From TrEMBL:
Protein name: Helix-turn-helix domain-containing protein
Superkingdom in the source lineage: Bacteria
Ranges for domain Helix-turn-helix: 37-86
InterPro entries: DNA-bd_dom_put_sf (IPR009061), HTH_17 (IPR041657)
Amino acid sequence: MAVEIITREDLDRFRKDLLEDIKRLLKSNSGQPTKKWLKSFEVRKLLGISPGTLQNLRVNGTLPYTKVGGVLYYDQDDIQKMLQANKFQNRVFQDS
């Protein structure tokens, strides 16, 4: 049986590599849910809106949904499309 000695430098390199991998994973998710279908409470939390506002988005057709057995589901892609479609860019011009 071969014995392998791990040095402090090996552990330090492993720690740095592990931290970089975790940072890369967190950055790739960028705080967004990883699930494709979200329930109403998840959408409200994600967008910071009330149940009434979410209902208005459904009723006026702004946010598509799917109803299965009385539970409403929202496609993550539809939420992103809605946000992009309602994106505003204000331009401020300053006199020199």
